[in-house]
Each structure stands twice: as structure tokens, then as C-alpha cells.
Write a structure and sequence with these properties.
It is found in: Membrane. By secondary structure, this protein is mostly helical. The protein has one domain (about 10-105). It has helices at about 10-20, 30-45, 50-75, 80-105. The longest helix has 27 residues, at about 50-75. It is elongated, with a radius of gyration of 15 Å.
Amino acid sequence: MEVEQSNLTQEEKTWGMLSHLTAFAGFLIPFGNILGPLIIWLMKKETMPFVDEQGKESLNFQISMMIYGIVSGILVFIIVGFLLLAVVAVLEIVLVIMASVKANNGESYRYPLTIRFIK
């Protein structure tokens, strides 16, 4: 379900952007990449449909990236995992930035390669 973007307030856009950007907390705090978007989503999902949509999208992407990272970590034992870990890290950074910019512009963003755990 895509949220109507024409009537979004700047506050909704900002919270939508933060639902993506807080994933970078994972670089400082273990599981911060999931906790950051989860906290934003839980705080605002009832009052802001755009943040509900973007928060779920961000959470699904971060859970998917964690799974891909774990699989890549296991594959390190057969060398290919080193390359895969680098690809997963770069993809995560680039896609989170793209999603944050889109959300700040009031546009819904759907991450590629995402397993949709939360509907």
C-alpha cells in the first residue's frame, strides 16, 4: 500500500527519512541497524501512515541484509564470502542513502532484494 504523498507534512517526511537513516546505528551499536528503524516505526506507525510504510520497508531491508551478511560470513570459509561481504556492505550504505533521500522528498521507496517479513 503506497501512501498518498501530496499531502505529507515535513514532519512525516523527516520521520520517514529517519526510519531509514537510523539503520546506520548498526555501525556503532550491535543490532542498531534493526533497533533504530524499529524504534522509529513503533513510535510513529499509529499516527503517520507514511512512517508506518517506510519503517516496515526499512526493517525488512535491514533484516534481509543481516541474513545476507550472515550467509556471506559463513561463505568466507570458501573465500567468495569476502567479496560478498563487501558487496552487502556497499549495497546497504548506498540503498539506505537513496531511501533516505526519497523519503525526505515524500516519495515511497521499496528496497530491492528485500524479503518482506513485516507486511
